[in-house]
Amino acid sequence: MFVASQSKKYLMDQGVVMMSENVLAKTTELNNGVKMPIFGLGVWKTNNSNAANSVFTAIEKGYRLIDTAKQYGNQPGVGAGIQQGLLKTGLNRKDLFVTSKVFNGDVGYQAALKGFKDTMNQLQLDYLDLYLIHWPVDGRYLDTWHALEELYHQGKVRAIGVSNFDTERLQDLMAHCDVTPAVNQLEFNPLNQEKDIRQLMQLQGIQLEAWSPLGGGESLNEPTIQKLADKYHKTPAQVILQWDIQQGVITIPKSVHEKRIIENSQIGNFELTQEDQAEIAKLDQAKRSLWYEDFAWHDPQNPNGISDVIDQWDDTGKFLPKNK
Q: TM segments (predicted)?
């Protein structure tokens, strides 16, 4: 087993660049000048109780970016975790960067404005740092965007953006918007690198944010990732997350376990070489786990059909972090 000094010498001998930056303190500047943490916590497929605990733990351990959505059905838990995290750490609301998303059942101008109020009530907040259109519901996303523009101009959200927009829909939105989206949140991981739309986003100054950055765990088992984990003395997850950061991608891995929440953020002390990044780039299969055809609203015969089902969880109803 390597001791710390031996491990560092070994890595330097192997041509590994050692870093000292805390990834939780690193930010990127969005196209409207707002600074956004480049690394944070996601809570998809997390019930309210676990969301409250994971958000509380993340804030306590230094995370400042929290990402949720009405679709996830856990905004009340996230809100409770935020309030308890602020209380425990002595931080202020302005120290956090909170993102939520317009629910598919709330698309359209008036519905989106009402949905925003619901989200604020559930999160126990009076403004959002970033508000995204969760999915581009055909025939509705332009009106929804105009609602987000109004919220932005009113100062109720600091930045607005989209999620899961492909090239065609993003170009359509850009042709009809007054405010350029600041972010497009996409499924992004070694097996799905979204190379085409990233070129368009770079031209427009739109920041890529990765959901499912670990590819639902499938990427972790790739031999290339395993080999690099051995080389850098890191976990496969840490290798992938560091690769995301070096790509300039905002990254929000989900976990409900304190050990994993801490471990995921411990990626500021190494840097992948260009050759290693190129090896990961070769893994791209454009392999999405969820796309338009998986939703009832994406029906060519009924483009305005909307699925209004929110994820439901078997909760106790008590969202406060346990034993805190």
A: none
For each successive 10 residues of the chain (324 residues), what is the average pLDDT?
36 42 93 98 94 97 97 95 97 98 93 97 97 93 97 98 96 97 97 93 96 88 96 97 96 95 94 97 89 68 54 48 42
For the segment 23-42, what is each residue's pLDDT rounded down to a tens digit? 999 999 999 999 999 999 99
Q: Is 96 helix (H, G, I), strand (E, B) or coil?
A: coil
Is there a contact between 26 and 245 (Cβ–Cβ < 8 Å)? Answer: yes
DSSP assignment of 66-114, as one string? EE--GGGT-HHHHHHHHHHHHHHH---GGG-EEEEEE-GGG-SHHHHHH
Angle (nearest 5°) at CA 276 between 270 and 281: 120
Q: In angstroms, what is the C-alpha Rg of the chain? A: 20
- What is the β-pairing status of strands 27-29 and 35-37? antiparallel
The two three-digit tokens of residue 191, written as one number: 């097996």
Question: Which tokens sit at 261?
Answer: 């929440």
pLDDT at 15: 41
Bridging pattern class, strands 97-102 and 130-133 = parallel
Cβ neighbourhood burial of 286 (10 Å; 0-12, 13-18, 19+):
exposed
Residues whose CB is less than 8 angstroms from the CB of residue 323 and which lie 6 or more positions away in sequence, other chains included: none
Query: Which fold is adopted by the domain 4-282?
Result: TIM Barrel (3.20.20)
Q: Among candidates 239, 296, 230, 298, which has minimal Cα distance to 267?
A: 239
- Where b means 16+ CB within 10 Å and e means fewer, 206-232 reads bbbbbbbbbbeebbbebebbeebbebb
Q: Where are the domains of the chain?
A: 4-282
Burial class (CB in 10 A: 0-12, 13-18, 19+), 156: middle
**C-beta of residue 19 within 8 angstroms of C-beta of residue 270:** yes
pTM as predicted = 0.88
